[in-house]
Design brief:
Helix content is 21%, strand content 32%. By secondary structure, the protein is α+β, with helices and mostly antiparallel strands. The strands form four sheets. The chain has a six-stranded mixed sheet, with helices on both faces. Strands 14-17-16-15-18-19 form a six-stranded antiparallel beta barrel. Strands 5-6-7-4-8 form a five-stranded antiparallel sheet.
C-alpha cells in the first residue's frame, strides 16, 4: 500500500505508521527541515453538480468559503451533535471537493454520507490512489516553492490545481501538506529528500499535538461534541450558516456554555506513550478525561492531547502512572469564525 515510501527506506510499523532510521527525528524538525509521509491521513472526494449543496447540509463549514484558496476545517456530526469525523475541506476543481481526515474514518464517513448522497447529483470516492507528504521546518516554504513551483499558502489556505494541492497547516514550525497522485509521489519524495531529512509521520503528529489540533480517530467516533476538541476555537464551525446535521446541538452547546470537557495539551513525566482512550486520573483513581493523541517529543517525553473536565480544581493528575503536566495551548478558547479566516491571505 505504501510502496512509494517503503522503497526509499521507510519502515512500516503499523497501517498508519511509517518510521525511518533517522536519529532523533523530532529534534530534526526543531533544527532543520524534514519531510514525512502522512500515511495516517486519508482522502474522501465529493464530486458532482450538487456537491456543494450536498455538503452544505452535512457539515459545519460554510462550504462556499472553500473556493480554491481558503481550505477550512470542518466536522461531520450525528443528529445528537457527536462527531463522526473532522476534516479539512478543499475545492480542487469546479464541482469537486476533497476532505482530508484520519484514514481510519474515511470508510465509515463515506458509508454514512452515501445514505444522503443518493438524493443529490454527488458521488463519494475514497481516494486510495493519492499520497500525502508533509514538510516541516524553517526552509519548508522555500523548498516547496522550488520543487513544486507554487507560492506557499498561509495556514488553512491552499495552492495548486486538480493534480496537486499544497496546504498550509499550523504548528511551532512552518508546515506544508502536499497531496498528489501516488504514481507521482516517489519522484517528488526523492527531490524533496535531497534537501529535507526523511522522518516518520510521528513527527507530523507531534506537531499537531503542539498546535492543539486533534484529528478524530475511530477510538472516539460518535463520542465527542466538536467543542470538546476546541473546534470552534480553530475556526472549524460556522455559526453563520444554515442548518446541517447536528447543528442545533452544536449551537446550543456554544450559546449556552454547556461544554463540560475541553481539549488540553499536556506533557507526561515519562517516555511511555499511553494508548488512545487512556484515562486521565486523579490521585484517588477517578477518571476526569481521556487521551486523544500521544507522541514522544524531541526530549523523549510523552506529549499528549486529552479531553479533560473543565472544573477548575482537579488536583494532581496522571496518565498510565505518569504525572500529568498541563501545557499552554497556542490559541485562546474563544470562537473564531471561519469567515474571518477566509479573508486572511
Amino acid at each position: 500500500m505504501h510502496d512509494w515510501i517503503t522503497a526509499p527506506g521507510g519502515r512500516q510499523e503499523a497501517e498508519d505508521r511509517i518510521a525511518f532510521d533517522t536519529p532523533a527525528p523530532a529534534r530534526q524538525a526543531l533544527d532543520g527541515t524534514v519531510v514525512a509521509p502522512l500515511v495516517h491521513l486519508g482522502v474522501l472526494d465529493v464530486i458532482g453538480p450538487d456537491a456543494e449543496q450536498f455538503l452544505q447540509g452535512q457539515t459545519s463549514a460554510q462550504v462556499g468559503l472553500a473556493d480554491g484558496d481558503f481550505a477550512p476545517l470542518t466536522v461531520f456530526c450525528t443528529p445528537k451533535g457527536r462527531m463522526l469525523a473532522n476534516a479539512q475541506l478543499l475545492r480542487v476543481a469546479e464541482e469537486h471537493f476533497r476532505l482530508l481526515m484520519h484514514r481510519g474514518l474515511v470508510p465509515s464517513l463515506a458509508e454514512h454520507l452515501n445514505k444522503f448522497a443518493a438524493f443529490y447529483k454527488a458521488d463519494l470516492r475514497v481516494r486510495d490512489d493519492l499520497a500525502l507528504i508533509g514538510l516541516i521546518g524553517r526552509e519548508a516554504p522555500a523548498l516547496a516553492e522550488v520543487r513544486l513551483d507554487l507560492a506557499p499558502p498561509t495556514v488553512w489556505h491552499q495552492r495548486g490545481d486538480a493534480d496537486i494541492q499544497l496546504l498550509g497547516h499550523p504548528g511551532p514550525r512552518p508546515r506544508l501538506l502536499i497531496c498528489l497522485a501516488t504514481k507521482r509521489a516517489s519522484a517528488l519524495w526523492a527531490r524533496l529528500a535531497e534537501q529535507a531529512t526523511p522522518v516518520g509521520n510521528a513527527v507530523w503528529c507531534l506537531q499537531d499535538i503542539q498546535a492543539g489540533l486533534a484529528w478524530l480517530t475511530p477510538a472516539h467516533r460518535d463520542a465527542l461534541l466538536p467543542q470538546m476538541i476546541n473546534w470552534e476555537a480553530l475556526g472549524g464551525i460556522s455559526f453563520k450558516k444554515g442548518c446541517y446535521t447536528g447543528q442545533e446541538v452544536v449551537a446550543r452547546a456554544h450559546f449556552r456554555g454547556q461544554v463540560k470537557r475541553r481539549l488540553v495539551r499536556a506533557q507526561l513525566e515519562g517516555g511511555e506513550l499511553p494508548p488512545l482512550g487512556s484515562p486521565v486520573e486523579t490521585a484517588d483513581g477517578k477518571a476526569l478525561g481521556e487521551v486523544l493523541a500521544a507522541e514522544l517529543d524531541a526530549y523523549d517525553q510523552a506529549e499528549i492531547l486529552a479531553v479533560l473536565s473543565t472544573k477548575e480544581d482537579l488536583g494532581p493528575l496522571s496518565v498510565a502512572g505518569q504525572r500529568f503536566k498541563q501545557l499552554k495551548l497556542p490559541y485562546p478558547i474563544e470562537r473564531l469564525d471561519p469567515e474571518s479566516l477566509a479573508a486572511r491571505t
